[in-house]
Design a protein that fits this description.
By secondary structure, the chain is α/β, with parallel strands linked by helices. It contains 15 helices and 20 strands. Strands 1, 2, 3, 4, 5, 6, 17 and 18 form an 8-stranded mixed beta sheet that branches. Strands 7-16-8-9-12 form a 5-stranded parallel beta sheet, with helices on one face. A 3-stranded antiparallel beta sheet has the order 13-14-15, with no helix packed on it.
Length: about 525
């Protein structure tokens, strides 16, 4: 009987995911003369911006900074239209990058990686897909994204609703028309904050089910002024340099002073200035925002007052006012979010103490009150940082699985490698700055660093690189210690996996800031990749 299995394709690297990370990784590997294949589950490139097509979806970092900087020609030729690019424009940009650098010929779409098993004898990864493709590669690079595994809530009767249901992270590509419909939306995180104003303008009635209110500041989105664009393009190198020197890897016009060194009047002026600037520039307001409780309380109270001014009904305003530490969850930037609750066709239902009892064919019930809907939207977020990796059967040395190793929380060295899994890299993995920064800048740093490691291995005729357990333990301790020294560890957020029932609570991103992280990576490289076992 002949073996009908697909022949194995031999490559230098397999890259999983064709978002910002996977695309640049492919380009970089090619530049270094390595053969690579990108495997992508979607029918097109774009990652986050391919899947998240919900109404109002847009970036929360200014377009001119949320973009690649590896190619000066690309920076100069691409024209952004708005301060914060909408999803469609971001996807158009990504497709432009695919075309410009001829990336599509090495990307396999509509294909999901099901397993990646390390063969110790040959120091190679054996990768298989749901289409029974087989690859043998020296390196396996996970570009699966931090927010790509949609989290469907565990509510009794969830499949019994007879109308259409939608998840913001898996939105239909041809859009949804809510005109004349009674819509229920569950969740008030960042996706919901963007979607709610748009849906409310269209639907006959919108009911919002909120467990935890979220801090949000005005985005102040607007069409980009051509003069501003020309100025940025003339001085792009300087802007990028300034951005990389900042904690969050984008230019927030950071105020270097702590609020404790400022007068009450100066603080008030700075707060109003940040409110007028809009967006995540709030992170740059005070140097001690995330470490000093008094400063954080002042900023939080300022934003709470603004919410109270925006929402006409005091009871609704109180429900929408967060009680937690300011920015212990990623800060949201909105356009008319709080004002939307002043509309006659919008109702806010608090489910913090009385959760949704069940979903039925006509709608859902909270306590003994039933709500009827024509459509339901789940804005319930993602199994962040580790969710996408856990969907793949990843086996390292000795057949140990990554999922098992990470069952008590992810363990990595620099967010790049996990001990016992040689030649496996994660781009913006847990333990790296990732979601606390401008993702594109962090991605580029990781891609270039991985490229340097692979080139170094080629030059020194090395077959395998693996994080040592000692270096990994020390890094995990450092990540936890840094998080523990801030206020962000104090609330139940997706940074800790608190939104996923049963998920071990571990602070996943590195919050020491982008510049110290880069410095540490460079030091590791300078010392012959210390903390790694090279074979």
């Amino acid at each position: 009987m002949s073996d009908q299995r697909t022949p194995t394709q031999t490559l230098d690297a397999v890259v999983v995911g064709a978002g910002f990370a996977g695309l640049y990784m492919l380009h970089r590997l090619r530049q270094l003369g390595f053969s690579a294949r990108v495997i992508e589950a979607g029918s097109g490139a774009g990652g986050t911006w391919f899947w998240n097509r919900y109404p109002g979806a847009r970036v929360d970092i200014e377009s001119m900074q949320y973009s690649y900087q590896f190619s000066e020609e690309l920076q100069q030729e691409w024209q952004w239209s708005e301060r914060y690019a909408p999803q469609a424009e971001l996807l158009a940009y990504i497709n432009h990058v695919v075309e410009r650098f001829d990336l599509a010929r090495d990307i396999q779409f509509n294909t999901r990686v099901v397993s990646a098993v390390f063969d110790q004898a040959g120091s190679r990864w054996q990768v298989t897909t749901d289409g029974d493709d087989r690859f043998s590669a020296r390196f396996c690079i996970m570009a699966t994204g931090c927010l790509s595994a949609a989290n469907k809530p565990d509510i009794k009767g969830i499949d019994s609703f007879k109308g259409p249901t939608y998840h913001t992270g898996e939105w239909p590509h041809d859009g949804v028309d809510f005109t004349g419909k009674r819509v229920g939306i569950i969740g008030t995180g960042s996706s919901a904050i963007q979607a709610i104003p748009e849906i409310a303008r269209q639907a006959a009635h919108l009911t919002v089910f909120q467990r935890t209110p979220t801090f949000s500041v005005p985005a102040r989105n607007a069409p980009l002024d051509p003069e501003y664009v020309a100025n940025v393009k003339q001085n792009y190198a300087a802007l990028r340099k300034t951005a990389k020197q900042q904690f969050v890897a984008f230019d927030t016009k950071a105020n270097e002073r702590a609020a404790t060194d400022m007068s009450a009047e100066e603080i008030k002026v700075e707060l109003e200035r940040r409110w007028a600037m809009g967006g995540l520039n709030f992170y740059g307001g005070f140097a001690d925002l995330l470490v000093n409780q008094h400063t954080n309380d002042m900023v939080a109270d300022f934003v709470r007052e603004k919410i109270a001014q925006k929402v006409k009904n005091p009871a609704t305003a109180a429900l929408l006012t967060p009680k937690v530490i300011f920015a212990c969850k990623r800060l949201c930037a909105d356009t008319d979010y709080f004002e939307t609750y002043n509309r006659d066709n919008v109702l806010l239902v608090d489910i913090s103490t009385t959760p949704i009892a069940e979903i039925a064919s006509e709608g859902l019930t909270v306590a003994d009150k039933a709500y009827a809907f024509d459509a339901l939207v789940f804005a319930t977020g993602f199994d962040a940082m580790t969710g996408s990796l856990n969907k793949i059967d990843i086996r390292g040395s000795g057949g140990n699985t990554l999922k098992e190793k990470w069952s008590a929380g992810p363990r990595t060295y620099l967010g790049l490698c996990s001990a016992g899994f040689p030649n496996l890299f994660t781009i913006s993995g847990p333990g790296s700055p990732s979601v606390f920064t401008n993702m594109v800048t962090s991605i580029e740093q990781h891609v270039e660093y991985i490229g340097d490691i692979i080139a170094y291995m080629g030059k020194h005729k090395l077959s395998a690189i693996d994080a040592t357990k000692e270096a990994e333990d020390a890094w995990v301790d450092h990540v936890n210690e840094v998080a523990g020294g801030t206020l962000v560890n104090s609330c139940s957020s997706w940074y800790l996996g608190a939104n996923i029932p049963g998920k071990q609570r571990v602070f996943m991103p590195y919050i020491g800031g982008f510049p110290p992280y880069v410095e540490k990576c460079n030091e590791v490289a300078k010392n012959g990749y210390e903390g790694f076992a090279l074979k």
